[in-house]
Specification:
Helix content is 33%, strand content 19%. The chain is built from eight helices and eight strands, in the order βαβαβαβαββαβαβαα. The chain has an eight-stranded parallel sheet with strand order 1-8-7-6-5-4-3-2. The longest helix is centred in the last third of the chain and has 15 residues, at 152-166. It is globular and about 40 Å long. The structure holds D-xylitol-5-phosphate (DX5) and zinc ion. Residues 8, 33, 35, 66, 175, 195 line the site of zinc ion.
Length: 217
Amino acid sequence: MKRIIAPSILAADFGHLERDVEMINRSDAEWVHVDVMDGVFVPNISFGFPVLRAVRSVAKKPLDVHLMITDPERYIARFAHEGADWITFHVEATSDPLHCAQLIRESGARVGVSIKPKTPVEVLRPLLSQVDMVLVMSVEPGFGGQQFIVESLDRIRAVRLMAEELNPELLIEVDGGISSENAHLLYEAGANVLVAGSSVFRASSPEEEIRKMLANK
Ligand code: DX5
Ligand code: ZN
């Protein structure tokens, strides 16, 4: 099964953003994960369009934009216009997830839908055939550097089972508390895309940490 690493620039040094995005360009990571927080859907504010543009101008890899914002439909076209290749919204953040998925599709970006750790995976069933990726949060969204919630492994398995029936091509992404220490557990559970912030940017060699996350164990 395909494996993709998406380093999260939330953990980058914003004083040296170009340097950190260049590291991702050189590395074996396939995507750049971009966390957008509005201070309403989550109790934290990260950054918006000017930073996205700066990342876009340096990154040679697809931008995987994770919207932790309320009523994401308001900004989907703008994120696509600013260079998002993947746009993931939270099912908890909108009253009409199917419409949200459709807006992302129409914008030309690939479609992701995310669930917080306490949201039942069953809410995904009516959406699975309409999206390209499910993002299973393995921490409460809002902050980097939190501890991986072990119960997420069962949730990934449950999404993979549902996907076998409804959308065999579905990518499953996992985000929060991931490192080369637990990556193999996530692949075994059925995940394809691993997001990693702190483990990559705090490693003495970020590129080596990315290689280790990709390697079989
Ligand atoms: C959390 C964000 C994550 C965050 C992960 O709300 O969605 O992408 O950057 O950070 P780590 O890898 O440090 O848990
Ligand atoms: Zn994220």
